[in-house]
Amino acid sequence: MKQNTIAYIDIRVFSHATEDENKVIEAVKKVLPSNYLEDIVFKKHTLSGHHKNLIAFFETRIKNKEVLKAIVENFASHLNTLDKEELRWKINEYTEKGSLYMRLDKQAAFQNEFRLDQVDPIRIRIRFKKNKIEDIAKICQEFGIIE
Question: Which residues contact 5 (CB under 8 A, 6 or more apart)?
Fold first, then answer.
């Protein structure tokens, strides 16, 4: 079932005026498989915050099947057991309309740790070719994202 089950992955992250954009991108790249970094290109957008502060917004959409598989396997091998269990038990809260939404701690990622977090995260959307939560859970289990 694993083959050809993911349509694409979106990755998005904000870099606030108080952050070094290069370090933010470095943090994101640490959650990606190193042998595919050259294949993943981020688009930069400049936004204005509530207090007119500049915010950089980086995003990418990955569709290459080989890269998709490598990214998901990389997440699976680096997510800790507690986060995998949370995803399993709260899969309904992390999925919507055929997508799994994960938010990774940006600061932890910079330290080579994968940890789910809601505050100023690296946003990851895995869009599956199936829409039912049961199918998504099974695919995630086969990849090892949930236990």
Answer: 128, 129, 130, 139
Percent of the chain with pLDDT over 90: 76
Domain architecture of the chain: domains with CATH? 6-143 (3.30.1440.10)
Give 6-49 pLDDT, tens digit per residue: 999 999 999 988 889 999 999 999 989 999 999 899 999 988 77
Write the CB contacts of 100 (distance below 8 Å, at least 6 apart in sequence).
87, 94, 125, 126, 128, 136, 140, 145
Predicted model pTM: 0.91
**DSSP 8-state code for residue 112:** T
Cα distance between residue 41 and residue 60, in whole Å: 6
Cross-strand bridge partners of residue 55: 47
